[in-house]
Amino acid sequence: MLEESKPLYSFNIGSFPVEIKTELVVQWVVMLVIITLAYWATRGMKKHPNKKQTVVELIYNAIKNVVIENMGDKYGSFVPFIGTLAVFILILNLTGLVGVSPPTENFSVTIGLALIVFVVIQANAIKKVGLGHYFLGYGKPLLPMLPLNIMERLMLPVSLSLRLFGNVMAATVLIELAYEALSSISFFAQLGLPIPLHAYFDIFDGVIQMVIFVMLTMLNIRTVAEH
Question: What tens digit of pLDDT does each residue of 192-214 get?
């Protein structure tokens, strides 16, 4: 069963304890991999693309089309943010395939991602309508709606983080239970039988949870600014 992860290294900044856990290390490794691949893929861009550049452009255009279809032409500047968010969450969800617990099964990771999205959504809304109109929007359509509108806005990062965290953790627990049950049969039972479980809970569910998170992010970036 799942146990609380122990810190790999810990230290204090004044009276504030800082713990370096596996989830943090995995995230940094994933970030370094994404940065390295992005640097390699975008080096030596040419007017007449080679095979590598063609693949990169196909991926970029696919992400761009998703953003434009869901947010509109005027939100094209969000393609890098949405693309990076999608790739980052997807890789985190798929780390279970290499024997590493997905960092997204830790609520502190998913709430961190959700808070980043929350800040981007509010910043975009303020940029689009101005600070005054942004705060006036909390009293629409009637001033008594103010508390409900504030609560609705604050619940977004909570719902985003809990949805991703809950589904990834549930998938991890089910896979671990399956391995425990198969270990009681024989060692060889653990070699082939869990493959369909990994295909569903790691790959299929990991992709679906990434898509949901990203889709809700895009929809909220647009709707909060426009409504």
Answer: 666 777 777 788 889 999 999 99
Residue owning tokens 């949405």: 82
CA distances from 170 to 21, 28, 32 (A): 21, 24, 28
Q: What are the tokens at 104?
A: 């997204």
Q: Residue 111 pLDDT more than 90?
A: yes
- CB contact at 8 A, 98 and 33: no
- Work out the average pLDDT over 114-141: 88
CA–CA gap between residue 93 and residue 90 (Å, rounded):
5
Report pLDDT for 16.
80
User: Which of 105, 87, 111 is closest to 207 using CA atoms?
Assistant: 87
CA distance 137 to 186: 62
**3-state per-residue secondary structure call for the chain:** CCCCCCCCEEEEECCEEEEECHHHHHHHHHHHHHHHHHHHHCCCCCCCCCHHHHHHHHHHHHHHHHHHHHHCHHHHHHHHHHHHHHHHHHHHHHHHHHCCCCHHHCHHHHHHHHHHHHHHHHHHHHHHHCHHHHHHHHHCCCHHHHHHHHHHHHHHHHHHHHHHHHHHHHHHHHHHHHHHHHHCCCCCHHHHCCHHHHHHHHHHHHHHHHHHHHHHHHHHHHHHHHC
Q: Report whether 1 contacts 176 (CB < 8 A).
A: yes
Name the residue among 147, 151, 128, 131 with its Cα closest to residue 227.
Answer: 128
In this structure, are strands 16-20 and 9-13 parallel, antiparallel, or unpaired?
antiparallel
